[in-house]
Design brief:
single chain; 432 residues; alpha+beta; two-stranded antiparallel ribbon; 11 helices; 7 strands
Length: 432
């Protein structure tokens, strides 16, 4: 048995054609004119009144309509007089005005202008066809082409296709002798207008994508800035509050009832608290963008001595050793190295033994290697995990992010009875 493929029914195609014709002739609407657009100029009014906007496109259409009107009257007067036109000459003026009217309407209402142009062409051909060949003035033909172009620019493809089909059928029905050039002109006008519409839509979509990309980049930049400020606040608050907490606990014990030593310890706590508040104001001031915000330089390796002194006052021994040229490091590298040592000291105070911390900084060519080691309390030496007795927190994550921003490497974890933080920061190419 021979199997035959079923023949596709033309019903869907016919329905699509009928829908396109219905939208073109009756129900379709056009897009509004693009705003702002070229051809609009400001015209100042005298006596201080507000300026007005002059649309050169509509002004040009009005001028073209006047030319078409005058040319149409002159075109029809000669043959009408020779053929002994039975009606009053006012008919010629009305018909010429009807032929040229769509040119005035095509910018604001392109579909309405096209419908008026076709009706005027058919009605005019029926009235003056006996003494005109072709039965319409050249201005009417130009008006039909221009309104067809406007429809193709401002309407979707289905409406444009319906306009093209109806226009071609009307051109054939009005005058068979000029049907070929008329259909060719209408086809060119519609295709050209559709191409202009496609280019405008593509340009609009591209501009929208660029705007979204710019918004996404701005959002990413804002998130990155928020993360950077969060790291700065964490490093400032976590370190100084750890030192303050340890000092507040150690000062009474070290004073041993001596009021002078107690007052000195409390003064140190107060000075450290004020320093913490000043650094927080500096970071928050940059975040707010306020005028007059404190823009003191960010800390660097030159402040490691202050870090050692602060740790000593809290009862923690911090030993710092360095090799290589550390004095001319770029600002971002110096800040990152300082924050890594600072945060490692804070972690040692909070989680480690708090008695012995060693920091080693070595510059080797275009790299800065950092190694911070602290001992573990005896009750935590056998606990599993990267951070003694704790889950990795914001401090370790912040140190890793700082190193990653410079293209470096960061590791932290327990080795035997010690907790070791290591980082490698590239120096070459950093602008500071």
């Amino acid at each position: 048995m021979i199997h035959q493929e079923p023949i596709a029914k033309p019903a869907p195609l016919l329905r699509a054609v009928a829908r396109a014709l219905l939208r073109a002739v009756v129900t379709g609407t056009a897009d509004p004119p693009p705003a702002p657009r070229r051809g609009q100029v400001r015209v100042p009014w005298p006596r201080g009144r507000r300026s007005a906007t002059l649309d050169l496109v509509r002004l040009g259409d009005a001028a073209l309509a006047f030319v078409a009107f005058a040319g149409g009257v002159a075109y029809m007067e000669g043959p009408a007089a020779a053929a002994r036109w039975p009606h009053d000459e006012a008919y010629l003026v009305i018909m010429s005005a009807t032929f040229s009217l769509p040119l005035v309407l095509r910018d604001r209402w392109p579909l309405a202008a096209w419908r008026c142009a076709l009706l005027a062409l058919a009605a005019g051909a029926a009235v003056v066809g006996a003494f005109l060949n072709p039965p319409y003035p050249p201005g009417a033909a130009i008006a039909c082409l221009l309104v067809a172009y406007s429809v193709a620019v401002r309407c979707d493809g289905a409406i444009a296709a319906g306009v093209w089909l109806v226009s071609c059928l009307t051109a054939v029905a009005v005058d068979v002798g000029t049907a070929v050039p008329a259909v060719t002109g209408i086809t060119v006008a519609v295709l050209f207008g559709h191409n202009v519409r496609a280019r405008r839509l593509a340009t609009g979509r591209l501009a929208e994508e660029e705007r979204r990309a710019e918004d996404a980049l701005a959002a990413r930049a804002a998130l990155a800035e928020r993360a950077r400020i969060a790291r700065e606040l964490h490093d400032v608050v976590a370190h100084h509050m750890s030192v303050i907490a340890i000092q507040a606990e150690a000062v009474p014990l070290r004073a041993g009832g001596d009021a002078a030593r107690l007052a000195q310890g409390l003064a140190e706590i107060r000075a450290l608290s004020l320093k913490t508040l000043a650094e927080m104001r500096q970071v928050v001031g940059v975040l707010r963008g306020a005028e007059g915000a404190d823009t003191a330089p960010q800390p660097g390796l030159h402040q490691l001595d202050e870090l050692v002194a602060t740790a000593s006052r809290a009862g923690v021994t911090l030993r710092v050793s360095g090799s290589g040229e550390l004095g001319d490091l770029p600002g971002t590298v110096g800040l990152t190295a300082y924050r890594i040592v600072q945060e490692s000291l804070s972690n040692a105070m909070r989680h480690g033994s708090g008695s012995d911390v060693t920091a080693e900084l070595v510059r080797d060519g275009d790299e800065l290697r950092i190694r911070v080691v602290n001992g573990l309390p005896a009750d935590l030496e056998g606990t599993p995990g990267g951070l003694p007795g704790k889950r990795p927190g914001h401090g370790l994550a912040g140190m890793g992010e700082r190193a990653a921003m410079l293209g470096g490497m960061f590791r932290a974890g327990r080795i035997g009875a010690e907790f070791v933080v290591t980082a490698t920061l590239p120096i070459k190419g950093d602008t500071g």
